[in-house]
Structures are given as structure tokens and as C-alpha cells.
Write a structure and sequence with these properties.
Layout: E1 17-21, H1 29-36, E2 42-47, E3 57-61, H2 64-74, E4 78-79, E5 82-83, E6 85-88, H3 91-97, H4 100-113
Antiparallel strand pairs: 1-3, 1-6, 2-3, 4-5
Subcellular location: Nucleus
Organism: Planoprotostelium fungivorum
InterPro entries: Nucleotide-bd_a/b_plait_sf, RBD_domain_sf, RRM_dom, RRT5_SRSF_SR, SF3B6_RRM
Amino acid sequence: MALRSKTSRLPPEVNRILYVKNLPFKITSEELYDIFGKFGGIRQIRLGTAADTKGTAFVVFDDIYDAKMAVDHLSGFNVLNRYLIVLYYQQNKVTKKADPNAKRQDINNLKEKYNAETQPRVLCVFIVGSQLM
């Protein structure tokens, strides 16, 4: 849908997956298709339903140029008196939050702080026999 030339280059943060924040809690995925579909083909929309993800969504476009057009036109767009925040999805920020080494270090720090055992406990039960009387 978007006009593009073969020599045009996009910034490295631009991709087909958009992260949308500040959505009205009662918005439906069909309404999001209506809003974002004006800029090109949409492959998928994931609407946040949990308490901590409500008001957010991921929109995946078929074409990267259509995603760029949507960001350019819908950032700050008013939907039910809420101004949308439309960002490019950034994988490195997500993986940075889920860094297992940092989590291990946090756990070790807590163990040291509270003098918790660092070795796992092993529980063994031996059953030799039983007698019925």
C-alpha cells in the first residue's frame, strides 16, 4: 500500500511488529483491525487481556513499509479520548528484561542476605517393609 523505492533504506529499529500502548480497555481486536488495517495488510493482532497487559496490543503487518506508515500516522491518534502510543517492537529490550544470568545473580544476592542454604535439600525415604497387624 505504501509507496516505496528500491533504494530507500529504513532505520534499523523499524520492523513489521508494532507495540501499541494506552489503548482503551474495552477496545476489541476488530476495532484495532479497522484502525490499523487502513495502512496495509495485517497478519496478526494480539490484544492484552491480563491485568498487567490490558491497554496494550501487538500488531503484525505483512509489509514493513505499511508498519512504518501506521507508526507515522497513528502515534498520538485519539481513540475514545485516549492518545495511542505506537512503537516498533524491540526484541533486545524484551530479552534484556528476561536475562537469566541477572535473575540468578538476584537470587544469589537474596540467599546471601537472608543466610539461606545454597545447596538444594535432598529428601530420601527408605521403605524396607511393612507389617499389618
